[in-house]
Specification:
homotetramer; 136 residues; alpha+beta; Thiol Ester Dehydrase, Chain A; five-stranded antiparallel β-sheet; 7 strands; 35% strand
Chain lengths: 136, 136, 136, 136
Amino acid sequence: MFISSTTIRVRYAETDQMGVVYHGNYFAWFEYARAEAIREMGLTYADMEKMGIIMPVIDVHARFLRPARYDELVTVKTMLKELPLHHKIEFHHEVYNEKEQLLTTGRIILYFMDKTTGHRSTMPESLRQQLEKYFQ
Amino acid sequence: MFISSTTIRVRYAETDQMGVVYHGNYFAWFEYARAEAIREMGLTYADMEKMGIIMPVIDVHARFLRPARYDELVTVKTMLKELPLHHKIEFHHEVYNEKEQLLTTGRIILYFMDKTTGHRSTMPESLRQQLEKYFQ
Amino acid sequence: MFISSTTIRVRYAETDQMGVVYHGNYFAWFEYARAEAIREMGLTYADMEKMGIIMPVIDVHARFLRPARYDELVTVKTMLKELPLHHKIEFHHEVYNEKEQLLTTGRIILYFMDKTTGHRSTMPESLRQQLEKYFQ
Amino acid sequence: MFISSTTIRVRYAETDQMGVVYHGNYFAWFEYARAEAIREMGLTYADMEKMGIIMPVIDVHARFLRPARYDELVTVKTMLKELPLHHKIEFHHEVYNEKEQLLTTGRIILYFMDKTTGHRSTMPESLRQQLEKYFQ
């Protein structure tokens, strides 16, 4: 399993009038955390796009257990539980507050897609090589 | 079953550099469509909050089948497949483009919560009475 | 002068924990209102992009006089006070609530830019012809 | 003068189909940078709200000179050029990319407001004492 962790300071813009973070805003956090996870592997998602691979999100599931609040420093964990097969990759996320309470869980499935043709593609070889280390 | 339909014009702000609507932005559309659905029942979610009931989102699932693009007029369908029991309510959403292609499906579970105490609550009686008509 | 008006229902996602619309969210409303204004002239901004002209925003000024609140139906007025010269176009916006109270004023300057070269461009001739009617 | 600096990694969610950061998203960056600036003074904006002072934004001006792009690590400078008098405070912001190119400038005026009454208020004494050090 590959695990990565990053922190995010909650912005005022991310709250709603319930006084907590709006549910739709967690997906930008997950995306940010995935980008940091890929960076830890020595690659960037931005590079992947330059190589012609885009990764559209095709399926998301999230559970909101406790609210995140303005100015909290939340930790977003990103987990890859299995080496991606074929065209899809599945990330798991967990969001914790400073008291280490689990706030939110997420599961995001993305597709490897050729930017030019719009057809499905596979994980870039450089990323696969990095990832294989975590699954042996 | 209760079904409601509303249209939304895609904003530039909602696109990302992939040239399509960012996945996290669909949740604001679903929320807007639920508010319109409740309005059709003769009530507003804003009124519910004034009555002391808030409805935090506790679980979301969405599948992204085809992208939505800038300036498209999408139709968001909102469905209530069963009368809510106890503290939760489950909405289903479908997003269609102008060619009537299904772009996205969503399932959103919300909680009825007492705004003052933060404890779980039940559906306001006025909303239940409106809804019961659709489930007989 | 060219004047156009459009309405927007305030989304929950657009509020913050102050219980009002977050100031940064008005710019997406202005952008939506500009797109509707251009549509009234018989063209769309989406078409302009397809013709190879993009319009990046280069300068904004907004004053927030009164807050907009969740579920309000606000009216966004878009005004073009003079025919654009050269590479820039300047729009003025006013946001009103249902009581016709002025909530916000905005002034947005955009650039006509060639999408391919990134160099400055001029207003498409088809848009200029439409606009000239309002300035004679 | 008081100057503070903070860095922000550009999120995919913040880009639009022009391939650059959407202009409306800079205001959340400015807000984040102001919160970090206040934290450097030994206070937090979150604390101020708990003390009953809210700070609605009443006037913004921003110029967009160069685009910010996905995954760039931008630096947001926050400057207070004079000690706030009475009810208002004026912050200046500058956004730089990793090549130290100036991308954006902003000027944001906020109001000190009593959260309970909605009337104008003044800067909390604890914040004034911290700030005075920079203006002697």
